[in-house]
Amino acid sequence: MGVEVKVEGLTKSFGSQNIWRDVSLTLPAGEVNALLGPSGTGKSVFLKTLIGLLHPEQGSVIIDGTDITECSAKELYEIRKLFGVLFQDGALFGSMTLYDNIAFPLREHTKKKEDEIRRIVMEKVELVGLAGAEGKLPGEISGGMRKRAGLARALVLDPEIILCDEPDSGLDPVRTAYISQLLIDINAEIDATILIVTHNINIARTIPDNIGMLFRKELVMFGPREQLLTSEQPVVKQFLSGDRFGPIGMSEEKDEAVAAAEAAMQAAGISGGGTKDDFSEIIAQVQPNPGMPVRKAAIRHRANVLAMLPSLPENAQAAIRASIAEEDERAAQSPESVATLVALANTDFSDPAAVQAAQDQADTQVIERPTDVLATAADDAQTQPIDTAAIETAVNQSDGQGSTQA
Ligand SMILES: Nc1ncnc2c1ncn2[C@@H]1O[C@H](COP(=O)(O)OP(=O)(O)OP(=O)(O)O)[C@@H](O)[C@H]1O
Ligand SMILES: [Mg+2]
């Protein structure tokens, strides 16, 4: 099971510049979390503080019972082995090939032999779609490829905690969808606690169990995804819609005169550039690929959310109830492709023993690696006989009709 990360009263400054203060949140064991916030609010600094690369002035970060803000260097070294980190800039060694970059944590932290290292490295290289590029240097590949190589390196130790700083930056929308799916599949497979820093609203809407947001040196909110997505807070609404009208400015906070001028422009029907999507309408969360194990954290997450439900705002409660009803419906409609939702639908969450039993049952499932799933799908496709007669009939029918539905 993944590891809980408990942050309490954390404050970080560089010299006289305070970045954020009194940040408290818990990344529940094995759940997928996203951290949003305008550029420069200190999301990357937060990630680096979680792994002890930066030192806060106040507060604690408790991982596996150890407060990493005050433990010894030796303890910190051990705790760091639990982490896989994708840094915002990829942080690859420029003079090493992708292969050596990805192999680095294995050579540094394990006694594995080179043939075992090769097996693991090549598996991760394939997982992130970089097969054939492993011999290249970081300077010889695209930004999106560097990002994926960084992710492969973050995954080689099968980490208990995965931190991803903007995994989507530099990636096209389709590759972003693949990487997001990969994170969900990995979560199902190894139950790792995941924190994704992102500006990508699509990711925020469909991937995490919980979402937080940093703004004006504070954690505005952290909770179940439905809570942030249905929030009425102006800063959250502006961020989600990507509109220039609102409390978030280009560099600093907006003053009253600017805010008044914007209100007048809005009243005059001038666009602030944002989408008019209704984010309070919750869309389905991405589920593990068919063949992947049940996502155990989903079971724990639902139990947690149901327990905290009465304390959440009304609209978040309504959105969570609607999400649950929709998930149960999907489980009934397509039981073979949404094992996690089926497990959720079949669990009596009013009975703690039943919740535990559902998790234990998930644990005993056979684990198939995502690459196997893809290979199986490809094999199936190859062995499917092609119905040439049907194609011929369709082509013949379309002759002279000017269009074809074949
Ligand atoms: N090592 C450092 N020394 C001094 N200041 C720093 C350091 N690292 C970051 N900062 C400052 O901390 C602030 C937050 O930076 P950070 O990179 O965490 O922002 P961010 O939220 O990740 O932004 P973005 O979305 O653009 O990546 C910035 O003002 C930055 O200049
Ligand atoms: Mg950053």
Produce a short descriptive summary.
By secondary structure, this protein is α/β, with parallel strands linked by helices.
Description of the molecule:
Strand 1 and strand 2 form a beta hairpin. Strands 6-7-8-3-9-10 form a six-stranded mixed beta sheet. A four-stranded antiparallel beta sheet has the order 2-1-4-5, covered by helices on one side. The chain has 406 residues and is α/β, with parallel strands linked by helices. It has 16 helices and ten strands. The protein has three domains: 227 residues, P-loop containing nucleotide triphosphate hydrolases (Rossmann fold, 3-Layer(aba) Sandwich), CATH 3.40.50; 46 residues, no CATH class; 68 residues, no CATH class. The C terminus is likely disordered. The structure holds adenosine-5'-triphosphate and magnesium ion.
Query: Any idea of the CATH topology of the largest domain?
Result: Rossmann fold
Query: Which of globular, elongated, flat, extended, rod-shaped describes the shape?
Result: globular
Helix content: 40-55%
Quickly name the level 1 CATH class of the largest domain.
Answer: Alpha Beta
Structural class: alpha/beta
Q: If you average the pLDDT, what whole number results?
A: 85
Please state how the strands of the largest beta sheet are arranged side by side.
6-7-8-3-9-10
Number of domains: 3
